[in-house]
């Protein structure tokens, strides 16, 4: 009985000791303090009225002390930011975006944000003649006399090809420099036209980092060669591949550069005529119109095919169909539409392989026969690949080019474009001269 009592007392003492110990509690661990903050995404730039969301990270990950994160903009009139990291570009300029801890202002992260002006193309007021000049042509006065060259208002040097590194590479740089010097002396504006492998453009446009590098490289070409703007001759961004989205983003960036106050640069783009609907026509989205000065609409280049004997690839219907699609169906402003003319011809009823002739070669064959092929739109010719084998070739002669120019003026279109000046003949039978004379006759 005595032993049982002792055991009971011992158990009670243990319980009381434990209770006393629990009531005092163990020392609380020290709080885990915040030591660092990071803005995980730091956009280098945004446009006016564009919004973005910043993501944050704090260290260490097991913080127990209370803290408050705050965002601020050094120039809130340039860009605003709330404490959730939502930023909005307000006007062109630069500002420093800072993330800090309210309780510990020294714990912070920051970056410089550039807000770019979302500059649109200005209104067009004239009627321009545009000519393409490929790098592989002789562009000296010996091949293209000043009298011919100065009929052109804007010259597109073709090309800067896209490389495997997704960067533009000027073809024949020394020729471009000499050509720019010559054109400047004659009062002609020179654009760099970029082109090349379509798949490379799709890759470039899809990735913002690659796209930004390409844009910066094109702008550097413009500045290094003292050029007057940029011509996009991608051929073509497509809604099928989704590349039209990247193209729009790229052209918006180019517009911000070309159309910034005081820049006085041109931004143009060569596009499909819209005869056949699909990914390429859908790739020219309506939002693009505001950024380009004009589109060079390529209303040429159809081979009629072996089964379509007598079909004329440059009939009026093609121009009318193109105008109807882009202007009436797609609501393209008339001041953005430049009518394209090909300075070459195609056959019909036979294969066009090795039977496409430049306009100058067509004229020269007429000379050999004592005929003026400039005044007609079809001729009997032969090609060097098939000597002695005559075939009919169809092309735009002077009367048709003059008529298309007058029609384009009457429709309030922006001008005429020629691919390419090395294919024209540089005398009174010139296609560019026919257009130039029609333009002057209309008082443009």
Blueprint (SSEs and pairs):
Blueprint: H1 2-24, E1 36-39, E2 45-47, E3 51-53, E4 56-59, E5 69-73, E6 79-81, E7 86-89, E8 93-101, E9 104-116, E10 128-134, H2 146-149, E11 154-162, E12 168-170, H3 173-186, E13 189-195, H4 198-206, H5 208-224, E14 229-232, H6 243-258, E15 266-271, H7 279-282, E16 294-297, H8 316-329, E17 337-342, E18 344-347, E19 357-358, H9 359-369, E20 378-381, E21 391-394, H10 398-410, E22 415-419, H11 431-441
Parallel strand pairs: 2-9, 10-11, 10-22, 11-13, 13-14, 14-15, 15-16, 16-17, 17-22
Antiparallel strand pairs: 1-4, 3-7, 5-8, 6-7, 8-9, 11-12, 18-19, 18-21, 20-21
Helix pairs in contact: 4-5, 4-6, 5-6, 10-11
Describe this structure in words.
With 444 residues, the protein is of the alpha/beta class. 31% of the residues lie in helices and 25% in strands. It has helices at residues 2-24, 146-149, 173-186, 198-206, 208-224, 243-258, 279-282, 316-329, 359-369, 398-410, 431-441; strands spanning 36-39, 45-47, 51-53, 56-59, 69-73, 79-81, 86-89, 93-101, 104-116, 128-134, 154-162, 168-170, 189-195, 229-232, 266-271, 294-297, 337-342, 344-347, 357-358, 378-381, 391-394, 415-419. The strands form five sheets. The protein has an eight-stranded parallel β-barrel, surrounded by seven helices. A four-stranded mixed beta sheet has the order 2-9-8-5, with no helix packed on it. The chain has a four-stranded antiparallel beta sheet with strand order 19-18-21-20, with helices on one face. A hairpin with a 2-residue loop joins strand 8 (93-101) and strand 9 (104-116). The protein starts with a helix and ends with a helix.
């Amino acid at each position: 009985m005595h032993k049982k009592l002792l055991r009971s007392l011992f158990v009670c003492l243990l319980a009381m000791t434990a209770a006393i110990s629990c009531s005092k509690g163990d020392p609380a661990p020290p709080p885990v303090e915040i030591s660092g903050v990071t803005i995980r995404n730091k956009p280098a730039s945004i446009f006016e009225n564009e919004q973005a969301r910043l993501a944050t990270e704090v260290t260490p990950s097991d913080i127990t002390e209370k803290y408050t994160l705050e965002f601020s903009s050094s120039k809130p009139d340039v860009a605003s930011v709330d404490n959730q990291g939502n930023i909005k570009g307000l006007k062109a300029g630069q500002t420093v975006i800072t993330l800090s801890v309210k309780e510990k202002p020294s714990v912070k992260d920051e970056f410089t944000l550039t807000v770019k002006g979302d500059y649109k193309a200005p209104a067009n007021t004239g009627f321009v003649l545009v000519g393409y000049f490929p790098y592989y042509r002789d562009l000296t006065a010996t091949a293209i006399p000043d009298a011919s060259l100065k009929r052109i208002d804007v010259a597109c040097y073709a090309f800067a090809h896209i490389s495997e590194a997704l960067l533009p590479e000027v073809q024949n740089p020394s020729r471009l420099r000499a050509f720019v010097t010559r054109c400047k002396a004659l009062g002609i504006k020179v654009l760099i036209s970029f082109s090349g492998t379509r798949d490379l453009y799709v890759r470039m446009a899809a990735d913002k980092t690659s796209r930004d590098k390409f844009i910066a490289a094109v702008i550097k070409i413009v500045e290094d060669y003292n050029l007057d703007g940029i011509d996009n001759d991608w051929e073509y961004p497509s809604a099928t591949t989704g590349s039209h989205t990247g193209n729009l983003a790229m052209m918006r960036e180019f517009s911000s550069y070309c159309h910034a106050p005081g820049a006085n640069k041109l931004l143009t783009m060569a596009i499909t005529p819209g005869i056949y609907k699909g990914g390429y026509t859908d790739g020219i989205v309506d939002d693009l119109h505001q950024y380009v000065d004009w589109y060079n609409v390529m209303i040429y280049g159809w081979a009629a095919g072996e089964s379509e004997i007598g079909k004329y690839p440059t009939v009026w219907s093609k121009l009318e169909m193109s105008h109807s699609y882009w202007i009436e169906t797609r609501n393209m402003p008339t001041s953005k539409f430049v009518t394209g003319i090909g300075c070459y011809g195609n056959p019909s009823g036979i294969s066009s392989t090795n039977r496409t002739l430049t306009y100058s070669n067509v004229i020269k064959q007429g000379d050999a026969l004592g005929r003026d092929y400039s005044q007609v739109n079809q001729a009997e010719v032969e090609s060097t690949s098939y000597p002695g084998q005559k075939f009919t070739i169809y092309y735009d002669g002077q009367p048709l080019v003059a008529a298309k120019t007058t029609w384009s003026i009457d429709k309030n279109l922006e001008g005429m474009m020629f691919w390419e000046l090395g294919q024209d003949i540089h005398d009174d039978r010139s296609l560019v001269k026919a257009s130039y004379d029609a333009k002057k006759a209309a008082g443009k």
